[in-house]
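HUMAN: Can I see a protein plus its fold?

ASSISTANT:
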Amino acid sequence: MPLAVRVLGLSVFALGTSEFMLSGLLPAVADDMNVSIPRAGLLISAFAIGMVVGAPLLAVATLRLPRRTTLIGLLTVFGLGQVAGALAPSYGLLFASRVISALACAGFWAVGAAVAVAMVDEGVRARALAVMIGGLSVANVLGVPAGALLGEHLGWRSAFWAVALATAVALVGVSTLVPRIPRPAEQPRLRQELKIYADRQVQVGIVLIALAAGGVFCAFSYLAPLLTDVAGLADGWVPIVLALFGIGALAGSTLGGRIGDAHLFGVLLTGTAASTVFLVLLALLGQFAAAAVVLSFLLGWSAFYTAPALNARLFDVAAAAPTLAGATTTAAFNVGNTGGPWLGGAVIDAGYGYAAPAWAGAALTLTAVGAAGVSLRLHRRTSASRGPAASRVVTGSDAARPENQVHPRSR
């Protein structure tokens, strides 16, 4: 695995910490900004909306720019967004800073994922993407709990300053260690790439990612009030449980990345089914502190166990669109990260309590299981029509030709 891929994973640590740390800061932000917890939860959706819009927009806007220069510029904007959030005097300005940060984060994900895939052999794409996703897992293990801890002792704004510092460290790493990536021999044609959205396999892949992500983060976004108000845990337990979620995420992404290349659909089906089971159990047993703690760990494991395969599947079926594949994957995840917190806040506002987002999330992940089954059926049908040579799961499209790929060792 090229060192540059690991540096990208390190950068994602800073991005992921900012994206998800508000799950442990919602009560403090709500109090300081004089808004309700569901309205504070919209700050999570605001970030996700920025990711949805920013991923394809910035992938296209930076198409002709050097990849490393693009990554450096996006990290700089992201860091400035964190500073703006730390200084925001009102909810509206904090909301705006989240959207701006998300736009830069989305661009980094889209470009970074494309760079990671380009630098490795086709058969280890899921592992390369798992390294990037591993940065997100470490963010959940260390960054998100640390943010909650800082918020408890130094105020929620200190968490934003800490992310700004982590972004500066990541910026140094990308500037010095990510190599120059040569442009492909054949320049991407956006009009041609847009045709992938007419492919039913791409459509189902987008829906599958959105449902799987939305179901988990519908519950995760409101995990802090569930732990304190439903399970009866003290505030000091919130960073610990968030760290357990992150440990589960790290273990899940590592395992899912290792076996996802060989058993992609097995990972998709078992991972989404497991998330459904854990969410139902969290809704039923959330009032018991021990159960809430254990299920938080298991939910982190199942969500990130599935993530590398979700990424790899969409890269496979969208292989004819090297520019838009990474952007589409990022946008699909964040459609779920937008809708999930919104749905969770809606059921809380409707008076169903802080356990209700787990029920709503389970409905989404159950639908994702069905979408995974449809994706498998479409894959088998396509493989049968192409013959035995097309039966490998990890090469979902023969459009990914060598002349359009960057050699794994290219510098």
